[in-house]
Design goal:
The chain has 9 helices and 10 strands. 39% of the residues are buried. Belongs to the ABC transporter superfamily. Keywords: ATP-binding, Nodulation, Nucleotide-binding, Transport.
Length: 249
């Protein structure tokens, strides 16, 4: 469902010159699977996901999402994905219901089908109590539920989550993680980036450790621990990162 082949993204920086934010990243993710990108801030996770979501065009390499080429068929890719991050914006002057109706129409849903879908999501995500409240008046947790509903209004087969729990309280984070698990249980293809080890251990079927724009290693959590001889994922991550840093010196 998702295949990245040697994805590369470079930027020109006045002070640092040519910056290789993502360096020949390759991986595949299948339906009913959560594929995790684990790395520190600045490792290249967000840039990778933005290329998959057609927000950025790769400098080199390619990606297919739901069978569509991310560069040649960007509109088809966008129709096939839901994209959720902690920074997913809502229009403050719209109510929660109006927000869902608006994004439903953007995705080609209208009339009775739109009303049915909006009501379904309001019930599913327990938005009913504040469905007529303006988005700029909602709590952080309420906004995240509306953001979730917005991202799946069109029933996408692929979900992309870019550090969606960063800065959220425990209860709101649990809502997000439960939703990610639900996506996998429903057979969706899920790519999930994070720097939080506990989230990887709970959610990810496969995980790639990203360091300085490169995939350092890939496997299940158990396999990565075995590779490093560590019993704790955080220690395994640090060992791999330090080994890569030492090799580059």
């Amino acid at each position: 469902m998702i295949e990245a082949k040697k994805l590369t993204k470079t930027f020109r920086d006045r002070k640092r010159g040519l910056v290789r934010a993502v360096d020949r990243v390759s991986f595949t993710c299948q339906p009913g699977q959560i594929f995790g990108l684990l790395g520190a801030n600045g490792a290249g996770k967000t840039t990778t996901l933005r290329m998959l979501g057609t927000l950025l065009e790769p400098t080199q390499g390619s990606a297919t999402v739901a069978g569509f080429d991310a560069v040649k068929q960007p509109e088809d890719v966008r129709r096939s994905i839901g994209f959720l991050s902690n920074g997913t914006a809502l229009y403050g002057r719209l109510t929660a219901r109006e927000m869902l109706e608006y994004f439903g129409r953007l995705n080609g849903i209208d009339g009775a089908a739109l009303r049915v879908r909006v009501n379904e999501l309001i019930e599913q995500l327990e938005i009913g109590e504040y469905q007529n409240g303006r988005c700029d008046k909602l709590s952080t947790g309420q906004k995240q539920r509306v953001s979730i509903a917005r991202s799946i209004i069109h029933r996408p087969p692929v979900m992309i989550f870019d550090e969606p729990t960063t800065g959220l309280d425990v209860m709101t984070s649990q809502t997000i993680m439960s939703f990610i698990e639900q996506c996998r249980d429903e057979g969706l293809t899920v790519v999930f980036s994070t720097h939080i080890m506990s989230e990887v251990e709970r959610l990810c079927d496969q995980v790639a450790i990203v360091h300085h724009g490169k995939i350092a290693t890939e496997g299940t959590v158990s396999e990565i621990k075995q590779q490093t001889g560590e019993q704790v994922l955080e220690n395994a991550f640090l060992k791999i990162a330090h080994q890569l840093d030492d090799a580059q010196r």
